[in-house]
Amino acid sequence: MLPTDGSMVRPISRGLTLRALIIWFILLQFIRLSSGAKTRHFKWEVEYMYWSPDCIEHVVMGINGQFPGPTIRAKAGDTVVVELTNKLPTEGVVIHWHGIRQLGTPWADGTAFISQCAINSGETFHYRFKVDRAGTYFYHGHLGMQRSAGLYGSLLVDVAEGEKEPFHYDGEFNLLLSDWWHKSVHEQEVGLSSNPFRWIGEPQSLLINGRGQYNCSLAAQYSDTNSSQCKLRGNEQCAPQILHVRSNKTYRLRVASSTALASLNLAIGNHKMVVVEADGNYLQPFKVNDLDIYSGESYSVLITTNQDPSKNYWLSIGVRGRLPATPPGLTILNYQPTSASKFPTSPPPVTPPWNDYHHSKMFSKSIFALMGSPKPPTSYDRRISLLNTQNKIDGFTKWAINNVSLALPPTPYLGSIKYGLRNAFDQKSPPENFPDNYDVMRPPINPNSTTGSGVYMFGLNTTVDVILQNANALSDNVSEIHPWHLHGHDFWVLGYGEGKFSAKDEKKLNFKNPPLRNTAVIFPYGWTALRFVADNPGVWAFHCHIEPHLHMGMGVVFAEGVHHVKKIPNEALTCGLTAKLLYKNRGR
Amino acid sequence: MLPTDGSMVRPISRGLTLRALIIWFILLQFIRLSSGAKTRHFKWEVEYMYWSPDCIEHVVMGINGQFPGPTIRAKAGDTVVVELTNKLPTEGVVIHWHGIRQLGTPWADGTAFISQCAINSGETFHYRFKVDRAGTYFYHGHLGMQRSAGLYGSLLVDVAEGEKEPFHYDGEFNLLLSDWWHKSVHEQEVGLSSNPFRWIGEPQSLLINGRGQYNCSLAAQYSDTNSSQCKLRGNEQCAPQILHVRSNKTYRLRVASSTALASLNLAIGNHKMVVVEADGNYLQPFKVNDLDIYSGESYSVLITTNQDPSKNYWLSIGVRGRLPATPPGLTILNYQPTSASKFPTSPPPVTPPWNDYHHSKMFSKSIFALMGSPKPPTSYDRRISLLNTQNKIDGFTKWAINNVSLALPPTPYLGSIKYGLRNAFDQKSPPENFPDNYDVMRPPINPNSTTGSGVYMFGLNTTVDVILQNANALSDNVSEIHPWHLHGHDFWVLGYGEGKFSAKDEKKLNFKNPPLRNTAVIFPYGWTALRFVADNPGVWAFHCHIEPHLHMGMGVVFAEGVHHVKKIPNEALTCGLTAKLLYKNRGR
To answer: Residues A243-255: what's their mean pLDDT?
Structure first.
C-alpha cells in the first residue's frame, strides 16, 4: 500500500522518479528507433549573390549558393536542426518555417521582433524543431522584406515510416511559386515607407522553383503579343524545370506560393487536378481545371497522365485579383519518351479573368476537410473581429487592423512577455472589433488611425474565433484580396461571405467539415470566419502574407500561455530590453 | 607629519579622500564653468530616404531626414552625446567619429566588430565622448559600406572659450567632399565579394556637401565636351552651395574628404590657399595653388579675397591617382554684392594630370607641424612593416597586409580582448614584416595568402613605428594610392620614399617637425613611415580608407592596454561571444 501522506511520499517518489525517468528514456529511444524518427541537420549560410531568376541578372538572397534555398525533406516526427549563419555584411536575418506549428519551440518560429532577435551579421542561430505532421510546407525570411529578396525554399514532410498517405501516387513534383521584381528590396522598402508613398508595382516575372523568363516567352509562338521566343539551352538559371512524366501514372504536384504580392492560378493543359492537401492538412478530394493559390498557401494536387503521350503540355501560372501586368510563368509537362523540346500543340491554359472573383470563391468554397479530420470545438470562448483598412497616418500610407497599424517593437515579444518587460510594447490590448456603423463599402475616414504594438492575449486552450472583415481601401471602389497567415496554429475556415459579417451569417458557418489551414483569404468587400484553439504557448504573428502589406502594418500579434514557455535559448534574446534584462546583474 | 605606515594611513586617507573628492568636484564644476565646456546632446535617427545628391534620385542613408547628416559643432573640451536610433528595417548601423581619439572611451569609436556591436534595427546606442581638441573632423558609418551609402557628416570643433586659433580669419566655409555611385551599395558589396570579382568602377559624381550634378555641368559653356548646361533653380537637393564672400577678407575653408574611392584635388580660380590645419593639427602655414586631399583627410586652408570683386570664381574638385572617369565637382566663390548667378569669366581650374604623382608628393612633403607642436619620441620600441598587396584567396580578389586579408569576427575585439575570449578571433599575432626578398615591383605570388582576424598587440605607452610598404597589385605595372587611417591616435608622418624601405632610408626621416595626422597616403610603389605612441587603451582599426579596399580586407587591428579600459557599456557588447559570456550565469 502506498503512503498517502505527501511528506512521506517524497523520498520514495524520488526513487520512483529516477527509475521512471530511466524507463522513460529507454522507451523514448525505442519509440524513436521503431518510428524511424531522425534528427536532420542542415548547415546553412545566407548570403547575397548574383543570380538570374528571370534571365535578368540581379542580386538575390541565397542559401549555400542556391536560389531558391535547399529543399528540406524529412519524415513526420523528425527533428529538423538548421544551423543558420548570417553572411550578409550589414543585415540581420531570420527564417520562418511556414506551416510548422513549433509545438513547444515558439523561439524557433523565425519571426524577427516576435519570436527572436534577428541573427546579427556573422553570427549563427540554431533552429531546432519537430516536423510533427506530413505535408507541403516552405520556409522564408521574416525580417523586413527579405522574403521578396529571394530568401525562401521548400520544406517537404513525408508521412512517418510505416504510415501511408490517404491517396496513391507514382511520383511527385515540387513547385515553389514566387514573383520577382527588378527593383531592389531595399528600394521597395524605402518607397513603401516614404511620404509620398511609392507602391512597388506589379512583379516583372512569375517564377516556378525560382525560374522565370522576363525578356522572352517560352510560348511566344502561340501568342499574338510581340514577345520573342526564348532561346534557352536549358542550363541557364532561368531555364524552366521540365516535369518529366510517364503515361498512365498518377503524380502528386506539391504547390506552395511564396509570392510577395501575386495571387496565382495554376493550370495544366488538358489535365484536371484533384486537390488532396492544403497547408499540411488532408482534404476531401475534389477535381478542378485550375487551382487558385494565394501567398502563404500550399496544396497537393494529383494528376493522371491519361492524355496523348506523343504530346507535351503546358503548366502555366497567372495573376489573379489584380489587373495583371506580368506574363504567365510557364513550364512543360513532358510525356516521356516524347522529346521535352517538342512544343505543346495548344497554347498554354488561359488564367481566368483577374477579377472573376466568383471563380475564386467557388474554388475556396470547394475545400473541405477529409472525413475523419479534427473538428472544431462547437463554441468559442472569445470572438474578435478584425477590420482591414488602408489608412493615412501622419501622411504615410498604411494598412491598419481595427484602426491600428502594426509597428513591431525592437524587443521580440516572446522574451518581453515571458519576462514581464512592460516597456517593450504597448500594454493596452488592441481593439477587439470596430464600430457597428462602419461602412465597409467606402474609403476609411482616418482621424483615429495609429501605429501600435499591442498584443491580443488569449487564455491557454481557449477557443478563439476571428472574423476577418475586408473593406474599401483608400481609393474609391477598391478592395483587395488579403491572404491572412497564422503562425503556430492551424485554424478552421468556417466560411466566407459578402459585405459586413452579421448575426445572420452565423448559421452559414460550416462546423461539420471545415478545412484546417494556416492561411485564408479575405475577398474584396467580404468576410472570412476562422476558429482556432489557443493551445500553443508562445507569441504568434497573424498577418497578411503580402510582403509589402505586412511592411505597411497589416498584421496583429497573438499570445497565449507564455508563462508555460520553457527556457528560451539565449541566442533568441540578445537584443533590445531582454538583452538589458539579462545583463542587469553584470559587474565590471 | 603624515604617517608613513600604509596600514595606518587608510582611515585617515578615507576621510581625506572624501574631502578631496568634494573639493575636486567643486573644482571640476568651476573649471567647466570657467572654460565654458558643455555637453552637447544630439538625437539622431538613421534611415533610408529618397534623395537626389547629383540630380538623379537615389536611395541614400540619411540622418533625421538630412543628407549629409547634421553638422556637429562644438568647442574643444565639450562632451558630445549622440543618441543614435537605427531606423533601417533590416540593417545594423554604427557611426565612427573620424579624427576624435576617444581618449578613455574606446567603446564610442563606432567601428562595428571592433569597438562595438552594430546597433540593431529599432535600437538606440549612446555615443558619449569628449572632443578634446579643436579641428576639422567628420563622422561616417563604419559597417559594411554604409559610408558609401551616404552615412556621413561634419564634426567641427572650435577652440575652447577664451582660446585662439594660431591664425586669423573673418569667416569660414565647410566643404565635406564625397563621391557618388548610382549602383546601390548592396550591389557594390556583392560584386566585390563575388567570384568572378566585380569592381565598383569610378564614381558617377563628385559631391561638395552632398551636392553634385550628374547629367549636366555648371561650367558647360567653358567645356568642349557635349555636357549640357545645368538648369537649376537653386533650391534643388543637387544645387551647389554658393560660397558668398566679401572683398579683402580672409576666409577659412574647412575641407574634409569622406570619399569612398576618389583621391581629390581642390582649387579655386585665381586664389591661392594657405594650408594651416590637417586632421585637427596645426601646420606650418604654406601656400598652394591646389590642394590634394585623400579619403579620410581634413584640412583648413585660408584664402584672401583679393581678386577683382566684380567677378565670381570657380571652386573645383577633380580626381587624382586614378584615370578619371568622373566630371569635376563645382561650386562658385561669389564676391558680394556681385550676383551669384554671374558666371566666372574663366573656366574652372584644371585638376593636375591624374598620374602626376610628383605634384602629389611635393604637396605631401610640404606638410610640417606648426612650431611648438608635440614632437615624436626619438626612438621606437617596436617597428612593424606592413606590405600592401592585392591577392587571390580561394579565387576571390582581396587586399592583404603581409599576406593576411582582414576578415572581421562577429564579436567586437574590444569586449573579446577585455574578457579574454580566446575563441573570438585568431590568437596568433599577424606577421610584423614580409620577406626581405619580396619584389614590390611585380605582381604578388599568392600561395600563402589567407584571411585572418589577428591583432597587433602593443605595450601601453610604447612607441610604435609603422612602415607602410606599397607594392604592385595583381595586374602588371599597377600600384595604387592608399590613404591609411588610424583610429584612436594621431601619428607623426616621418617620411615618404620610393621603392622598398631600407636601412638607408632611415636618415631621410623627419624627426624635427613631422606633422601629426590620422591619415597618411602611400604612393604607388612607395613607402610611408609613421610613428605613434600606443597610449590610448583600446582596440583600434588601422586601414585603407578606400571603402571597397577595406571591404576587401585592407586593414589591420591594433590593441593596447585593454585591461585598463573601464567598464564597457552593455549596449556595446550585446552580440557574439560577449553576449554569450554575459548571459552564461543566467537561470531559467
So the answer is: 98
